[in-house]
Amino acid sequence: MHLTRARARTAFPLIVLIGAIVLASAPTHRANAAAALSDEQVHKLLTLALDNVSRGLCEGKTRCAPATAEERENPPVTIAEARIVILRGALSAAAEHCGLDWQGRNFVPMMTYWRQNMKKNERQMAVIGLLHGIMQGMGKPNRACTADMRENVDRQLTFQP
Q: Which residue in 36, 80, 119, 134 is deepest, having the highest Cβ count within 10 Å?
């Protein structure tokens, strides 16, 4: 995903914070880790996804229309939902870094959950996929995957709603 340098620079400190939270969190603390993100921080990442929504696929497998001003004010995904997806994206980044099956254990089950259980429409699914991808692309750890890191990520990786 191509993001402007200014957007990436603005989001980078937030990405580092989220990555640290994920890597340091035991599975029982996932909810606390997600709650550590302020609504403003989550909204910034959600806005970044909306800025790029035209890269996603919507109805009929055509590109989504760009986000409208109204949609930016009232996003198609709630802050609470976005917070969950952001955390899962950071976890996918760490899992990929450690050679774990992030697609089969995290991304695909998460997307299935949002589509089937939560009945999200194609545009909402595009935003969810973009949020996950932004976090995964920008949230890769900047250190080697240690045995402890791998074990911690492995414990958290399997998606459970």
A: 134
Q: How many helices (H) and strands (E) are present in the chain, helices listed first?
A: 9, 0
Taking the domains of the chain in order of start, what are their residue ranges?
A: 5-157
Q: What is the 3-state secondary structure (H, E, C) of 76-93?
A: CCCHHHHHHHHHHHHHHH
Residues recorded for the chain: 161
- Beta-carbon contacts of 64 under 8 Å, excluding residues fewer than 6 positions away, are 53, 54, 55, 56, 57, 58, 122, 123, 126
Residues 103, 73: Cα–Cα separation, whole Å:
31
pLDDT, one tens digit per residue, over 50-66 is 999 999 999 888 999 99
Q: Is the pLDDT of residue 129 over 70?
A: yes
